[in-house]
Specification:
Helices cover 89% and strands 0% of the residues. By secondary structure, the chain is an all-alpha fold. Helix 2 packs parallel to helix 5.
Length: 139
């Protein structure tokens, strides 16, 4: 992958992150005030996960097409893992500041069930561009 390909993958990763994070922020505006009081934090987060899965798949597909990311592993993984880096920076920067907590406290208070699902979703978020590229090459 040349410098232009890497640059394009990193820009695509930033856009993929922004679309996904924006949608997650909007969903949190529903989850926190309406679902958490009624169902508790664990169930509210688990209810949100399928919606976020749809967002991730659609955002990934749209971003890959919009930036014409080739189906090879290099550019797709660069896109996905740069998006993951942006997501973790936002999570640990913005969210920790808003909640006025430390990273240690964040992990201590994370629900083991919904937290595990969330971490699996982050992994999928990172590798989905590559998985979609493999599907294109095989199909």
């Amino acid at each position: 992958m040349n410098d232009n390909g890497l640059r394009g993958a990193l820009v695509a990763g930033a856009v993929y992150f922004a679309v996904t994070f924006g949608a997650g922020f909007c969903l949190a505006l529903v989850r926190i005030p309406f679902l958490e009081p009624r169902f508790g934090a664990r169930w509210a987060e688990l209810i949100e996960m399928p919606f976020m899965l749809v967002v991730i798949v659609l955002a990934c597909r749209w971003t890959v097409r919009r930036f014409a990311i080739p189906p090879g592993a290099g550019a797709r993984l660069a896109m996905g893992f740069s998006a993951l880096a942006f997501m973790l920076a936002a999570e640990f920067g913005l969210v920790l500041a808003l909640r006025d907590t430390t990273i240690t406290r964040y992990f201590e208070t994370r629900d083991p069930v919904s937290g595990t699902v969330y971490y699996l979703m982050l992994l999928l978020f990172a590798v989905l561009p590559h998985l979609q590229g493999r599907r294109l090459r095989q199909g």
